[in-house]
Amino acid sequence: MKSVPDRKPGMADVIRPTDDESRALAQSLMQTARFAALGVLLEESQPLVARVAFGLDAQGGPVSLISDLAQHSQALRRHPVCSLLIGEPGAKGDALAHPRLSLMAEAAFVPRTDPAHAVLADTYLHQHPKAKLYLQFSDFSFVRFTVTAAHLNGGFGKAFRLAAADLLPGG
Question: Do β-strands 35-41 and 47-53 pair in parallel, antiparallel, or remain unpaired?
């Protein structure tokens, strides 16, 4: 088995080759996710993880609606590089046996003056109808996450590295 630089010498590469099944699982996790754990870097170089609402734009890219008052919003404005973890454990069994997807991304806030804001709002409200209340508050903004890479853990012994294109419908 081949060696990967970020592993200890002699450790086997347990990452499986990306295939149609792993792409389909990753896409399904994204389509069904309503929340995500968002990892950001605070000014003090300390990591912070926050739960955020998760949705997809019309092209299938990840988005969220977050308050500028939140610490994670302020961190994203300073350091847009972030990660999102999606996939909820099932009601029974070992939580680590359930699939989850880690997205490495770069965040970009969508100003209310941007023509794309209205289209994004329509799409997002279809997924999160109760977010209509938050859209009325001036401190809430949409954030688009441009995925740079992803790691899929499909359950025990089912690990995959995915490219951003693998996550898009038809990818």
Answer: antiparallel
How far is it, in rounded angstroms, from Cα 57 to Cα 44?
A: 32
Show the tokens assigned to 109.
């806030």
Helix runs in 19-157, H state only: 20-32, 71-78, 116-127, 132-135
Residue type (1 letter), 43: E
pLDDT digits 0-9 by tens, 121-164: 999 999 999 999 999 999 999 999 999 999 999 877 789 999 99
Tell me which amino acid residue 65 is: L
Predicted TM-score of the model (pTM): 0.88
Structural domains for the chain: 16-167 (2.30.110.10)
